[in-house]
Amino acid sequence: MTKFEALIVSQRGGSADLVRATIGELIVAGWTGRDEAALEAHIEELERLGVPRPRTTPIFYRVASSLLTTDEVVEVVGNNSSGEVEPVLMRLKEGVCLGLGSDHTDRKIETIGITISKQSCPKPIGRSWWLLADVEDHWDELQLRSYAVINGERRLYQEGSLKAMRHPQDLMARCFGAGTGLPMSTAMFCGTLPVHGAIEHGDAYELELADPVLGRALHHSYTVKALPTE
Questions:
Q1: pLDDT, tens digit, 9 for 90 and up, residues 148-206
Q2: Between vectors from CA 80 to CA 75 and to CA 82, what angle results, nearest 5°?
Q3: Which of 88, 93, 138, 204 is the most exposed place for a label (fewest CB within 10 A)?
């Protein structure tokens, strides 16, 4: 179980409320792309790197909620990991909220087992959140991007609209059943976008979720501290 302070910004009420969030279950949704041909190409790309094919798409990995962190520095073992910017849902008493995070994953362990790799690294998340109800009607317009610092160079790592991914209502229905919704105190990472170039270990990541319709954006950044492999 993870507890952290979350700033929930409501567009409708124009308010920003600081609440104490408690998350007891964490789910990482994988292979959530809408384009079946692009999804298959990505699966084949990872297969060539030794990553096993998922048994179904999308797929929902259960990982420890204690991996969630709002810290600006995360510790990993070695230089085999990399980040992935993702929209993140969580259910609190205020409702279902939308934020952003990074499904930071050890790529070497990923070739052994994706479920194990999901458990191998912290999952950074931002402190600011929107109510899903405020953006649900223009989900496809939201823009997701990340920057990575690799060998001292900051470069665009991922970029695209959420139109490329399944709608959150679709994901929740597939994971929990039609009409069920996200359970209380549950968080779900909703999938990511292809990287520009190769998947690489970065020394730092900057994350952004932009809403061009309402003219606002969520941001988070974190540095990666690589511990030595003995």
A1: 999 999 999 999 999 999 999 999 999 999 888 999 999 999 999 989 988 899 999 99
A2: 70
A3: 93
Largest CA distance in the chain: 53
Do 88 and 100 touch, CB atoms closer than 8 A?
Answer: yes
Residue positions counted in the chain: 230
Query: Would you say the C-alpha torsion 120, 40, 85, 87 has a positive or negative sign?
Result: negative
**Residues near 142 by Cβ (< 8 Å), separated by ≥ 6?**
87, 135, 161, 162, 209, 210, 211
pLDDT at position 25, please? Answer: 98
Could you tell me the CA-to-CA distances from 101 to 39, 146, 209, 229 in Å, in that order? 21, 10, 10, 26
Give the CB-side neighbour count of residue 54, counting CA atoms within 13 A: 17
* DSSP class of 151: T
DSSP 114-140: HHHHHTSS-EEB-SEEEEHHHHGGGGG
